Amino acid sequence: MEDKIVMAEEFVKAELGKDSSGHDWHHIDRVRKNARLIWSKEKKGDWFIIEMAALLHDIPDDKLNESEEAGWAKLDSFLHSIKIESELVSRIKNCIETVSYKGGRVIELDSIEAEIVQDADRLDALGAIGIARTFAFGGKKGHPIYEPELNVRDQMTLEEYRQGDSSSVNHFYEKLLKLKDKMNTEHARQLAEERHRFMETFLDQFYSEWNGKA
Question: Which domain of life is it from (predicted)?
Answer without folding.
Answer: Bacteria
